[in-house]
Amino acid sequence: MTATARAIIFTISILLTGLTLFLVLPAAPALELKPVGNASTTTPALKIQLAGGNVAPQPSEEQNQPPAPEPEPEPEPEPEPEPEPEPEPEPEPEPEPEPEPEKAPEPEPTPQPEPKPEPGPTPQATEAAANVDTPEPDAGSDRETRREQVQLNAGDDADVDNYLSELHRHLSRHYDYPRRARRLQQEGTPVILFQFDRDGNLLDYRVRDSSSHQLLDQAALEMLAAAEPLPDVPEGMTGKTFTYALPVRFNLR
């Protein structure tokens, strides 16, 4: 209920209370003054009537009662919290590419000892001689050929061992494990047979024993070709041309 409505109701209550008191209370008796002495010479009596309005109105019960307390406003319902959005699933990280295995240290090729040639032309000497257009040698020329063409083997003498060590160090500088062969997990030890002169020039070379992997066989031949010219043959070694079988290891571990 607004303040204006309460004021109107309160005013109406006061008016009704005053009207009720005015109607209910009896009129006050008039005071009559009796004449003294002779009526003819006496002033007529005056009538005085008390007005009922001089009586103070009593407060009504409605005025004594305190105003009714205003009803407390009902609390507005709190808005329901909006549901939090579900977090989007984080994308799974892409697997990192596997690092390529580090290049293995270049191992020095270890010479494989071969049996010493028996008197007579060795298979390598015969094959090398077949590459040269020369007449069929006799016994004397065969001995001369053996002196000119030497099959190198580790352990023959100190000069040969020293030269082979120098040759291995020189070849290892050009050793390269093919990257594709690494990815394919290819391993093997091809043996290359090559012939060279005293100045280190290659005269002939080929794969004698295959590793069963063409990539590794080709890498061994490319290593030999890249290493030309080979180290010069020292004066202490006899012969004009030299043949050597070199195993080249390709091992991932």
Keywords:
four-stranded mixed sheet; TonB/TolA_C; Fusion Protein Consisting Of Minor Coat Protein, Glycine Rich Linker, Tola, And A His Tag, Chain: A, Domain 2; about 250 residues
Please describe what this structure looks like:
The structure is a single chain. This protein has 253 residues and is α+β, with helices and mostly antiparallel strands. The protein has a domain at 147-247: 2-Layer Sandwich (Fusion Protein Consisting Of Minor Coat Protein, Glycine Rich Linker, Tola, And A His Tag, Chain: A, Domain 2). 30% of the residues lie in helices and 10% in strands. It has seven helices and four strands, in the order ααααβααββαβ. It has helices at residues 3-24, 61-64, 123-130, 139-148, 158-172, 179-183, 214-226, and strands spanning 149-151, 191-197, 202-209, 241-247. Strands 1-4-2-3 form a four-stranded mixed β-sheet, sandwiched between helices. The longest helix has 22 residues, at 3-24. The chain starts with a helix and ends in a 6-residue tail after the last strand. InterPro entries: TonB-dependent_transducer, TonB/TolA_C, TonB_C. Residues 162-253 form the TonB C-terminal domain. It is found in: Cell inner membrane.
